[in-house]
Amino acid sequence: MAADQEEISNDEDIEEDNDCWDEFSDCCAGQHCLMADAPVSSTHTCLNCGHNMHGICGVEWSQLSSSGYDIRKSCLTAEGRKHLDEEHNMNDICFRCCKHLTKTN
């Protein structure tokens, strides 16, 4: 091996940069979460409560009725209604809010 080449060992412990996971918290779907042991990113937020959730722990607004939920726009929080009016791409509602808002309709 040449003197200017660094020897790389596969046995070394590689410390990963996990700073991106620092702000993760529990999924807002609560007991209805489908990935309880997985970290939650800020990529998906609930349209109603505004908290972070896993992408699979909710229902897209346009698919609520076909998924068995009866939720009217007027039942959403003011932030949720504003978000819908602004026509964003991700309009998921966490399962906890889906169940709660369906019961209160």
Radius of gyration: 20 Å
Main sheet properties: 2 strands, antiparallel
Report mean pLDDT, rounded to a whole number.
Answer: 79
Order of helices and strands: EHEH
Shape: globular
How many DSSP helices?
2
Distance between the termini: 73 Å
Unreliable segments of 5+ consecutive residues: 8-24
Q: Looking across the biggest beta sheet, what order are the strands in? A: 1-2
Q: How many strands in all?
A: 2
**Helix content class:** 10-25%
Estimate what percentage of residues fall within beta strands. 5-15%
Structural class label: mainly alpha
Give a short synopsis of this structure.
The chain is mainly α and 105 residues long. The chain is built from 2 helices and 2 strands, in the order E-H-E-H.
Fold topology:
Elements lengths: L57 E3 L17 H8 L6 E3 H10 L1
Antiparallel strand pairs: 1-2
Structural summary, described in words:
With 105 residues, the chain is mostly helical. Helix content is 17%, strand content 6%.
Short key terms for the protein model shown above:
17% helix, two-stranded antiparallel ribbon, 2 helices, mainly alpha, 105 residues
